[in-house]
Input
Amino acid sequence: MSEMRRIATDNAPAAIGPYSQAIEVDGWLYVSGQIPLDPATMEIVEGGITEQTHQSLRNLAAILAEAGGSLNNVVKTTVFLSDMGNFAAMNEVYAEHFGDHRPARAAVEAAALPKYVDVEIECIAKL
Output
């Protein structure tokens, strides 16, 4: 079996359960879902879907950076929304962060997300 490397950074929220921020194996990085927690305070950022999406993507980017990558290495994301009515606002922020890079993506509405946030984003990246 290939060796797995656990990725952890103080620049993203600590895991709030029995999981890792990310796991790298054979140059592939699997990043756990990131919610809009401020890593300094471990509190949900104030504001709505726009602010929450920015923070979730900043957290994702911090973990990617710790592993030696960036958002440009992302191959696939999954976006979980508490309300699909927030899709357009999330999508606008998402496009700002990814620029011309267009990873594959799924976006789904979930009945409830951790800490009852509005958005959670996970990804798979090739380092």
User: Anything to note?
Assistant: The chain has one domain: 4-126. Residues 18 and 65 are 22 Å apart (CA to CA). The chain has two helices and eight strands.
